[in-house]
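**User:** Everyone, produce a chain:

**Assistant:**
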Amino acid sequence: MNTAKQNVKERLAVSTDVKAIRVIEKLLNLAISAEADEIFFEPSDDFNVSFRAGNEVKNKFSLPMKIAPAILDGLRALARENGGKFKQEFNGYKIIFSLTISGGRFIINLHKENFSLVNLNRLGLSGKNLELVKNNLAKKKGLTLVLGEFNSGRTTTLYSFLHYLSNPGLNLATLENEVIFDLPEINQSRLDPLSGYNFAQGLNSLRRQDIDGAMIAEIIDRETAEAAMHLAAAGHFVMAGLHARDLPAALSFFHDLAIPLRLFSDTAGLVIRQSLAEKNCPHCLKERRVGSDNLKRLAAKINLKKLLTRLKRDKIVSEKIKNPEDLVFYKSAGCPSCHNSGAAGKIGIFEVLEITPEVKDLIKTGHFSAINQEFAKQGAYSLAEDALIKALSALITIDTVLEILK
């Protein structure tokens, strides 16, 4: 099995200071052990290094300034290799390191690759949400849009759709900045903007091919958005990611790009909004009452009595629960199984929005603010409500729900 040290040495060889190589490989291994999402290198008066895991910044280090130039030279050398991305084997996973340089700040993003993570049934979709997604995938037509902000798990969701659909009789293709997961039986294309092969160009190429469906990792501009919608209008199944907080924000984005909203409403079949949360370790769960202050914070954002009626109807909570004050939540205390962190990986929080005729009319007429009300009428659970359901199921903490509600 390759170690981070071997990986770094192979790329930096003898051109980088040996001490710097040792420091870089040690930091990479520490970040993996800490299940960090990002490593930050910030040279200022001191040479500071920190890890971000979820919403928490931890493991802060101050390194001697005299070693900073050698480490930064080493990081620059890594950035020149394969667009700043490289992989390392670790406990049966592949860890993908992606390095970017912004001003004087160096950031390494860590992504854990494992096919069990892209299984549709393990994303965190459940109940009606999972049913809507599976029904939509079975249709194999129209545009499915996956919304989320940075580190929300959009790419993992898109890959799970491909993995679910994959079979020898279906001709599927992808357009990606970087091929993160290698999926057999799918034609995966890595974009190369420097040579002119961008999302829009790739999509126009796909329109001339005999494909059944395509995955576009991210819609970033007007050309890409219009090409994706035209591909869907031509009868192909298109799955695309978009950096947006929710559907009204996505529609505003399309409107600002001067894309006819009728084109979106005519081609869209499903919009999925998502976030990513830390899962509770199942081995050290402890009951935790919500507390009056937190209950008020929840009630300010969610109609708890109305939600409680729906949760009973859908058999998510017991009929014995009479009032919101009776709800029980959980938090993991920490144990050897989770290295005393209380966490056991990540889980998706979802809002699945079917683009019905009523929603299409709202989109075409520009009534974006009424869209969420329409989804509520249809009985869909919002992102915050899905988070609350997962908290009641002991999957996440109530603190995570309150963070989402901010």
